[in-house]
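Appendix B: complex inputs.
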Amino acid sequence: MANETVLIIGGGPAGMEAARSVAELGYPALLVEKRDRLGGRPDEEHYAKLTHHFRDAEEMIQELLDAVTSNPNVTIMTSSEVVGCEGEAGNFRVKVRNGASTEDVEVGAIIVATGFQHFDPGRETQMYNYYTFPDVITLADLEGMLKAHQVVRPSNGQTPERVAFIQCVGSRDRQIGNEFCSKVCCGVATKQAIEVKQQLPDARVFIFYIDMRMYGYWEPDLYWPAQEEYKVNYVKGIVSEVLPKGDRLLIRGEDTTMGRPMEVTVDLVVLSVGMEPSEGTRKVAKILDIKQNKYGYIEAGGPTGVDPVATSRHGIFVAGAAAGPADLDDTFSMAGLAAVRAISAIRRLNLAKAV
Amino acid sequence: MDWVSTKATKYADVPYEEKLRLFLEVKNDPRYEDYLYGCYECGICVSACPSARFYDYSPRVIAQTMAREDVDRFYEIMVEDIWNCAQCFSCVRCPRQNNPGGLVTLIREVAVRNGLKEARDVLQGYSRVIYKVMLKGNQVSPDMLQPDFFPDWGPWVREFSANMDVWRQAIPADTMRGVTDAAWRTDEKTLRELYTIWFETNNIDIVREVDEGLYELLLDVMEEVLEEEEVA
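Resulting structure:
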């Protein structure tokens, strides 16, 4: 008989949603998380509000957490890592290490939900000086400031008069090796620009971009209100460098649609860093022997190309940003589908044996 | 300095505060929020714009400059760009429902109200038109075709103006035959109503801003006519 337990690796939004779905469909879920608590990136990086519904991130994570902790079908192992895997669909034997001890668990299917990490702006070809100037920060840094209602210049603790976002940092760049679009940064930066204006109505906010990718409802929910209600300035043209100017920062770029080079003095520069596969994603892919694409993300799509949760191995599925840049809508859709696919794989094996 | 192009700012001799004052006069117009939402720089307005084909003029730049609140560029636009707009409003096909032509209207009005030199220069050639419209209720009349006026109407202006009576005779309709100072007859009641409108709407004051001499001329005639009515 195939083992009915579904192992979910990673306790972020994708992992928690997958565990909840598996459990609610009546199957046992084993949720393994490397950190000592569930919540993933939104928890670890202190997200303020979610793109695009402006929902409180902590509240949303708490709802997921309550759903998995209150369901007796979910077993949670925190501070635990998957370190080995043998067997095949229906009967995977997985080694889980917790501190000094290692436990062998048997599961029927696996969902990988190991997520992404933000691009490190120290590794870049542009000269944005993230590690040199305190007032050059990332989306993740600003998220924490917004959550604390403390949007200030780190250099002196003062309120910034002018804030500039620089898009596509670490994305769409052959020199860096990340040719892909990270998909969420246009929406996240726009959401943050709106939040900055809500918290600091007198601030002037600029977004320097290559293309604004405001797909679906991000257009009426984020982009248009940012321009029309909050007067956020969108300038098509990527900044080439950030330089010191007195105690402020000078950003240099081209204002392409106005046909002129430009220099703007600002107080706070926010780098819209993209997504990369997390260290956990790279590691787990090797342990589970599933294919990765050239960027290190887990290759999804399956033989038909239209199964977004299938990996190269039968019985192993992927959900969320472990498979590539994803927003929360993508992540939740994938998590639910991965739960269904995992249970289907187990049931199919058992039905075949019953005949 | 608000927004710095690395190219030298034009009209640097005009104080920033003055540019900002004019900008805010445009922005605070009650029509402004219906004319400008936000611009994502698609260029459809330029594609639809006849002036953009022939002049260094872009309705997109008008909308963008206003949306960015780029005060220096705004001043350039006020002095240079807006006078190339034909006010045909082809640009209102904007998917964001902006009205760049409407923005030009607002900026022109502010330029005229503030008596900007550029507004005076542009309107100088139109003094005769203003005179005809405001005083006679006619837009143009044959006698306005004088050798040195409206050079942009082409070389035939000289020829036509020299033989105006003959050309006028050639028009088949016999009304107005021989009359060259009007295109049509405007009755006295209509004229009095027009004069009243110019005063009530303060249009006459706008004329004073751009052409003091014309203003005096109009005022003399119009006041006399309106006083006559009161006496009667």
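The longest strand of chain B covers residues 4-5.
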